[in-house]
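Lecture 7, part B: from sequences to assemblies.

Below are the input chains for today's worked example.
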Amino acid sequence: MKNKILIIEDEELILTFLQRRMQKENFEVDIARDGNEAIEQITKNKYDSILVDLMLPFVSGFQLIGHIRSDEKNAETPIIVVSALSTEETIVEALSIGATDFLKKPLAVNVLLTKLKLLTSHEPLLHSA
Amino acid sequence: MSRVEDIAWNLYDWFQGYPVFIQIALVMIVISVALFLLGNASLAIDRMRASYRKSRESTATAIITAELVGGLMSEEDQSDNEFDKFVNRIKTLTAKSSFFKQVVIDQIIYYHRNFTDSTEHVLDKLFSKLELADSAVRKLKSKSWVRKAKGMREMQEMKPENSVGKWIDPLLNDPNDDLRIEAQATFLSLNSDDPFAFLSSATEELLPWHQIILFEIVVNTPDLPIPDLRDLLQSKNDSVVSFCIKLAAYYQQLEVIPELISLLDHEDQNMRIDALDVLGKLNAEEAEPVMIRKFPLEDLKVQIKALESVGEIKSGRQLEFLKEQFLDSSDFALIKTAACAIVTYPGFDKDGFLSEPAQISARRATIMNHCANNLIRK
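Predicted structure of the full complex, as structure tokens:
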């Protein structure tokens, strides 16, 4: 069964690229372009991993992390924050409110993919390589 | 007489039949109505143009995004042959019109800014194969400064290999602030041998926001050669000196300490404050005697910075000076700064010092205790 991930990103070009890249890596991908859309998706579905940008319209990435952690279905879902806001304070805050990992923009897609595979797979990556 | 001429003469006769002030009012009404119609027509045309452009842009963006993302997706397992096919597909798009070409450039730059490593590498290769650097150079030759600036921004992001100095150099001292900073940022990004050379010939001011942009490039460009700031700190252009003081702190250039000490005589107060700040950061013990000698002659702001720097240098030789400032100053900011400098100064015994109430007022003791409290952010 494919692992299901949610990408929450308001930049259309980045979203398109990440979505297609993840699909190519055999993930089932849902997308959300703003905080409200993301909350709708999170309430309806259970995800294996969620990618969150911090600067989003309507609901900020920080608020979304809190929302995901309080959602019954996704409380345990790994959250990767992908953001250009990468000061020490931002990273510490994101991790302390429940993010699993933090990746800075500009983003190395292969690093993101490896982390996603690690977080969504129960087997060590070396076995699947 | 034709029918049109007939109507015109009738209208003229009708107009002539009115008194002069009515004639003037009629002319004004006609002009107003004409201007109103013209204004609305021009607005409508502008909106139609914008909407046409937007729809064209969204069509072009959709087509180009699909092609680019397709090519970028298979970045690693792509053979040369496949990559060439990908390049040809994008080339076909750029050949459609200059509009399509610009959308391709904008998207490559956008992805380049947001992705790194393998994606960045593919984009660099694509930019080079499509010879898009030529398009940036052509923009530099334009008469419009906006196009010139756009061309330079494209170069800063994509860093093409061909030399563009011929086009950039004349713009380094352009009176237009926006154009000048783009030229300087491009020079700094592309000139790997001597990226700071433009500073020695800078005649125009490096505005504070210029300095932020340049500093960001310095911080974010790996392997940038470290400049020799000694001559630049003696520049006649004060804004260059101000920028170089910041660079001296960033690069921890101990060899420029003598030049920084000379700047303590600078007529501009901010320059003296900046120099004091960096001398503190560089732990320049040799600057302490000059700082202390000039202290009584300085303005309050400079005095505060001097106390902070002496406290930061912590040579252990200026304890008496700091105590004197703490005990004798009447200004609260000076007392507090001196107290904060003293409490962490080598060899200072706070409890012993405060146990002599005859020389320390309760107010000063409170200030010192405040500074010594690690839980309070100063």
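Note for the exam: The radius of gyration of chain A is 14 Å. Keep this in mind when comparing with the next example.
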